Structures are given as structure tokens and as C-alpha cells.
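cron nightly-structures :: item 1 of 1
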Amino acid sequence: MKLTILGSGSPEAYARRASSGYLLEIGDDVILFDCGGGVFDNLVRSGRTPSDITHLFFTHYHTDHMMDYARLVHAAWDEGAAPMKVFGPKPLIDITEGYFGRNGVLNNDLRARTELPQSQQVWVARGGTLPRPWPAPEVTEIEPGFTYQGNGWQLSSARATHAQPILECLGFAVETAGRKFVYSGDTGINPEIAELCRDADFLLHWCYRGSGEELHPALMAFSPDPGQVADMAESAGVKRLFLSHFRIHMDSEDGHAKAHADLTARFSGETGIVEDLQTYEI
């Protein structure tokens, strides 16, 4: 497995970090977890094209995890790609229809590209045929506990505690060739995610709160700091632990030093804080 960090930030506008997006490559499958703002551009910067994506899995629908969804699907469609396989909690079908349906927000663009003679000729010149269909990703709505069998890999999921009851939230684990990758999604420490992380070779865990940082109790309950994540990962037998979803105020030299100190003191394996466009072999 090869992991590429396409977005390691938060909803905050920030040149250093795009919002959430993580690319996992296994054989011929290119799997994207979340697609927040800036992820599309980093996908292109990484040397890939939208049509390379075979599977897209959403943890939840905060905008920093899905703002580039329509852009990705539209661009892959414009490249003539096969329909993308897209998975996520409800209401993924309604969201997709809201973008690409006959009355969706992109309907004027899509009508112009598929109905106007000049646009049709551009499409034909690229090798396309008429009539040109609209984008139609293969959408599957999923719940915690969902599993999926890919080509030589298997995905499982668990409930992440984050924005319920308005948004269902998930974490994902992918296993292949005796290796296990876990992406926590946005979550508090909970038994379901801890079990999902059991014996993971590589855990990518969100971190929205700096070491020792005091926030409102309603937020702290769902935002573990680096030490708390380290404790959970250690107890779950994780081998490598990396943090993501860093906020601007946490990205100082002092903030990183405190996070690294907590990680190394409370976790026995390799640790780190990811940055956009870094790659890891798992």
C-alpha cells in the first residue's frame, strides 16, 4: 500500500494544508478517503488525474471532508473516465443528486456541455461519442460496520463519534497482503474506533486539539489531544501512528514539539505529524 497525503488540515483557509483527503494505492485501485477543499489541486500536484480515482469513501459530510467532491466527479467525467465508485453515510444519494441531477446546481453547466453543438464537437474531438451522458457516479450509502471486498483488499468501518445525530461519521480500515491501514476520520476516543485500530500497521488519526489545550467541554469530549491518541494506539497494538487535521494555531514549532513529546512518551512505535503531499509505504 502507498499512502499520499492530499490534505492534512481543517476547515480553516491555510496555504500549508488543504482540508482532509488521503489517497491509498493498492495494485490497480486508487482509493480516496474524503475530498475536502484543496484536495483536488493536490491530487493533480501529486502527478495523478481525477480519472485515476477508482473508489471514494467519505467519513462524513462536514465541508472540509467533501467540498471538492463535485469538482472531482465532474473532472473525471470530463476526462471520459468510467463512473467512480462512491461510498458514504446518508444522505450521499441526495448530495450527489443535488450536484448532478436534472435540477441540480450543475444542471446549466451540464446541459451546455452535452446539448450545445459547439460543446458536442469538443467532446467528439477528444474521442467521445454522442449523445453524451451526464456524470453518474456509482453511489452506495453505508453504515457503521459496512465492509467491502476490493481487488486484493478488504475495507471495514466503525462509527466515529463526532457530529451525531446530524451527521453519521465513520472511520475506515483497509487490509491487504497482511498489512492494515486505518483512517480514524474525525472522532473522539471510543471502543469501536479503538477496535478498528487493533494491530494496525499504520494509523492516521485526526488531531484537532494541541497537547494540553483546554477547549469547551462539548468540544474536548470529541477532540483527543496527541497524548490521548497515543494512549489509545498503544493499547490497540498499533505499530505506526501519524496525526493529521492540524489547525493553524497548532502548527507552530512549539506546538509540534509538545505533540512529538507526548507521542514519543506514550507510544512505543514510529510517530509523526503528516504534511500535504508526503507519501508513506505501508
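cron nightly-structures :: done
The chain has one domain: 2-281.
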